[in-house]
Amino acid sequence: MMLRWFRENVWVAAAITLLRIYVGWQWMYHGWEKLTDGFDAGGFLKNAIANPVADRATQEVLFPNYTYFIEHFALPNVKLINFLIPLGEFLIGVGLILGGLTLTAAFFGMLLNFLFLFAGTVSTNPWLLALGVVIFTAGANAGRFGLDGYAMPFVRRAWNRIFHRTDGEPGAADAGGKFAAR
Fold it and tell me: Which residues cross the membrane (predicted)?
């Protein structure tokens, strides 16, 4: 009941819009900063390999697969990473601010936060991750006052036209439709 209220209430949508704009600004600002100031993830990646997240008592690496990924994929392809991280951060921010593809932007924001945390960077990542979860949990209500609120009715109509067959086509029977069981 609470989740339904959170996903459908207009006042929640207004509050989530403010939260979405704040989080979006954080992503867009830092992405733009990296795009314009020249971003190099090489040092960060080397540090993540040299000092992986480890258990304090046993010094056992907690995310060995992720450390392996950084060492064998990310670091050799650092030029790609140098392009994708700033562009991704900027686009996540734009999506959240405008409310366009809101859930997609929130998902990729949370994914980047997790990746940064697995590499050992705390910074603002837990906070942005928690706020991203709130936005993502709001579902379609998160984009209600944004581009999603305007675009989704058109997308739904087009989707229904394409995938819901009617007028005697095979497979046209649907519960409650004009070909429902008599």
Answer: 90-115, 127-147
Cα–Cα distance, 83 to 80 (Å, whole number) = 5
Which secondary structure element, helix H or strand E, spans residue 15, and what is its range? helix 10-37
User: DSSP characters for 49-117?
Assistant: HHS--B-TTT--BS-HHHHHHIIIIITTTHHHHHHHHHHHHHHHHHHHHHTSSHHHHHHHHHHHHHHHH
* Cα 25 to Cα 148: distance, rounded to the nearest angstrom: 18
Q: Which residue range is the domain that position 7 belongs to?
A: 2-145
CB of 142 within 8 A of CB of 16? yes
Q: Domain count of the chain?
A: 1
Global pTM value: 0.84
Q: Are 97 and 142 in contact (CB under 8 A)?
A: no
Q: Is residue 61 part of a domain?
A: yes
